[in-house]
Mechanosensitive ion channel
Amino acid sequence: MEAITTFYSWRGLFYLFIGLLALYGIIKIVIRLIENSAKRNLANKQFIFWLRNSLLFYTPTAVIVFVLGFISINYITHSILILIIGVFGFPYIRNYLSGLLFKSNPIVNEGALIKATNLDGEIKRLMVLGMIVNTEHGEQYINYINLEEYGFTINSNKSSALRQTLYLKTSLTQDAILDILFDNPILNFEEKPSLKNGVNPEDLILKYTLESGATTKDLISFLNSKGIETNLTRKVN
């Protein structure tokens, strides 16, 4: 009972703040360690992608937990205070949440080419409430909420490489093929390759993005060396 009483106090709120801040730092350190030491296979890539998204959404979750702790000290007074702040800060909160959804898109990154209403350029920096875009008229600051209202198109990633398709024929499983691809530096893993089933069990459709300087011919040679048949225009018979 004493522990519960302590939590509903300013001291408890301070400890909560320290704990949330420490957890944020731990998650960042874990992501950095895994990125530097993990092997380039499918399981690790998916785990790192999950961790990055967890970190992205951790901040608003931590804020909500902190606010609930703040309200618990004095339900009536603090609830009214939070409500007032929410009313006046609603445009900023909405803009922030729009930014979270925008940045969680796997094809959105600094260096990507973006096109929207009265906007055409390269994303230079992603910030909390907006982003800076390099256009032919100079740098522009864009609020995330504007992108949500008018829509946008990402033309390519920062390597300016487009999504491509290759048809495969092999007895290997999809996971086995993806593990083989992750061991090769030809592909750009900021846009993860994907595999779909073709007409026949042995036919697969590979969607991929190449690293800058790499060619589809290099990828075909690599796959052929692993005993995987390829075709550029249709499924392999």
Remarks:
- Strands lie at 113-116, 119-126, 130-135, 138-143, 152-156, 164-169, 194-197, 203-208, 229-231.
- Residues 2-73 form one domain.
